[in-house]
Design a protein that fits this description.
Low-confidence stretches: none
Radius of gyration: 22 Å
Structural class: mainly alpha
Distance between the termini: 15 Å
Oligomer: single chain
Largest sheet: none
Number of strands: 0
Number of helices: 18
Length: about 400
């Protein structure tokens, strides 16, 4: 049995309940402010006017396309494949304010369902839901709150992915692959999750993720299926983004910022080396994961392989926004439950994840968590990790 994080002390239970209640109040207050104030949810405005521009026969990918459609400035550019425009089109049948309110209501419902899936199927502390809920509401920069403010689709993305992961843990590769492909239709990089099917499926089943990936490319990225130049315009817009710092605290952004700082301090031409540094960083992260997979062999349980792939994905993708860290809440809980031992270590990790004081702190936290995960699994060799099973998702 996984030891309870609180140690059974009454004062810690009260603190935990207060943390959950306070986090819920903050989340709902953010939702109310977002609902009552015009001009919020900037990402939704991009979806809305992008779909409306496409409905009028214009390309939504130009630098001024959304402003031309809206008649006023719109922050951001439409960065999703042309296949997704039809999914946003129903919102354009409403006025912008009404559409934004509907989108927010659906998102709040989605948050409730997502938290329910986590607590029911991915909670490493089956005896209590409170620790996982507290982490979801407070850890890694509060991505739920950030996503509500931004009006992004991240909550729906996470809902689809964790539903897919539930199928994966139960060995049902077809629904897993279909859900991953559906989610990846928006931001593309989640299609890498199909690698789970290749790594853990039987030889007879490995055609499923391969066929899904081929079908995904043929349907989502095929320029013959969309208006002329639409797919190319999408890639030019998406690849032209260079967000950094608190908005996009990921590995590539950190390497670019660190290279720029070193160049300013030393006068050396370091910035142009950043692509090579990023490649070396990627190779290091992937090499550690490959070593874990090779060393652990058949003793690496599906839940542990899922956590490993999520760490590699979050650390390696070139764009991982602050609200995207919602993906890493369950891995964080998994590390707290199965890897970190002792009250001092757990309190230190909780402080690191919940109290943000420096730029890129979420990224640094992931590196530390990945290091702890790797150390545990490499030191265990081929011995099973105590606490990894049974897992709620398998029951």
């Amino acid at each position: 049995m996984i030891p309870p994080l609180s140690g059974g002390k009454h004062w810690s239970r009260w603190l935990l309940w207060l943390a959950v209640i306070g986090g819920m109040v903050h989340l709902l207050a953010t939702g109310f402010r977002t609902f009552s104030r015009p001009g919020t949810q900037p990402d939704f405005k991009v979806y809305y006017y992008g779909a409306r521009a496409a409905g009028h026969g214009a390309s939504p990918y130009g630098p001024t396309a959304l402003e031309a459609e809206a008649g006023h400035p719109v922050a951001g550019r439409f960065l999703y494949p042309p296949a997704t425009l039809r999914l946003f089109e129903p919102f354009t049948r409403l006025e912008e304010r009404q559409a934004a309110s509907l989108f927010l209501a659906l998102k709040l419902l989605g948050i409730g369902v997502l938290l329910g899936i986590w607590v029911r199927h991915f909670n490493p502390w089956p005896e209590t839901p409170w620790w996982l809920l507290a982490l979801a509401l407070h850890a890694l920069g509060r991505p739920l709150v950030l996503d509500l403010k931004a009006g992004n689709i991240s909550v729906f993305e996470e809902l689809g992915l964790w539903w897919a992961f539930l199928f994966y843990l139960r060995g049902r590769l077809i629904p897993f692959c279909l859900l991953v492909a559906a989610v990846a239709s928006f931001k593309l990089t989640p299609i890498l999750m199909l690698g789970l099917g290749l790594l853990s499926g039987s030889r007879r089943e490995r055609w499923i993720p391969v066929a899904t990936g081929v079908a995904f490319a043929a349907l989502v990225l095929n320029p013959m299926l969309y208006p002329e130049g639409a797919v190319g315009a999408f890639f030019r817009a998406a690849l032209g983004q260079d967000e950094r710092g608190s908005m996009n605290p990921c590995g590539l952004a950190w390497i670019r910022d660190a290279s720029g700082w070193l160049q300013r301090e030393t006068g050396l031409e370091i910035v142009r080396l950043s692509p090579g540094l990023y490649l070396a960083y990627l190779m290091t992260i992937v090499a550690v994961a490959a070593l874990i997979y090779w060393r652990r062999g058949a003793t690496l349980q599906r839940i542990d392989l899922l956590m490993l792939i999520l760490f590699v994905y979050a650390l390696c993708v070139p764009r991982f926004k602050n609200y995207s860290y919602l993906l890493m809440m369950v891995p964080l809980a998994h590390i707290l439950a199965t890897t970190v031992r002792g009250p001092a270590a757990r309190i230190g990790l909780l402080a690191l994840t919940c109290i943000h004081v420096i730029p890129y702190q979420q990224f640094y936290t992931l590196l530390i968590l990945y290091g702890a995960f790797a150390a545990q699994h490499l030191s265990a060799g081929r011995e099973p990790i105590q606490g990894s099973l049974p897992h709620p998702a398998l029951t």
